[in-house]
Predict the structure.
Amino acid sequence: MIPSPEPADPSSPRFSHPAEEAFAKILDFYGIAWVYEPRTFPLEWDEHGVTVEAFRPDFYLPDQDLYIELTTLRPELSTRKNRKLRRVKELYPEINIKLFKRREMRDLMVKFGLYDQAAGIEGTQAQKPEGLLRKNAQQNAG
Amino acid sequence: MSVVTISRQIGSLGCQVARLAAEALGYRLFWREVINKAARCCGAPDAALADIDELGLLGLKTSLKASQSYVEAVKRVIEDLAAEGDVVIVGRGGQTILRGLPNVLHVRLVAPAGLRAERLAQRHQISLEGARAQVEARDRYRRNYLKRFYHIDWDNPELYDLILNTARFTPEEAARHIVQATLNLPFPARQETLFPYDTIPGAC
């Protein structure tokens, strides 16, 4: 039996990556309710029944009943994550889970003036955030 | 048993007007709930996100099959809400799904693009340049959504009974016009007259 995600206070979670914080800001921007890392899915157990591998999706969206996992751009990391995701779907077919790639996200945020949101996404192959640089320059000048 | 559908441009204060009108009429207001309920009904929760993501920030791509299934579910949810009556439904093609029904008022809220961008910039504390880009992108998204799934032109005035420019009216004034027009609608004596269907499909 799968326990329901425990309600958590999303106002002050400690994100493990700046991209997650940026993603949370996008969800806030769209007015989408979210919970950060509300539960862990065991994937492998040893002979004593102890969990040796697990998967904890980054976000849960209660209104959509959807789990979200963010990926980095590097394919070698995505491959392992994809395998875990496939395993989650095998073991827990009743849950909805979606993998998000951050590609182009920052470009779009900058284009639409969402500089604060874009600031959290680093290390992508995105365009130079000219709007972001411009805003920082304006702030420094002020 | 009346219904109000509200189609709004981003930055036209549509949600504010809808809320005020619903409060004044004593109607229930449905906006995002339609999207989420529909997506959950058709088993495509990410379709809800794709629909909410009008700027494409999340980069979601849903299959044509999932999209069509989702749009059908949206239609059913809106029809069910309308059958219950006394509701204000914001967006999601309500003006075409409930088109021609006598107890439904179709409202369109507009404002000049420049003013909408200014409102957006102020509300979200973003640059005017970014706000203009948002206005263009969201207008394009909503226009394409209706064209793709319902084959209608979003800007066709014949789809609406009442078009209000919020550059001229405050949200309170706009809501008052909607309330007045709604109170003048004919009220069907029996629910069967609301929908000419044999059965009204369930939401889930």
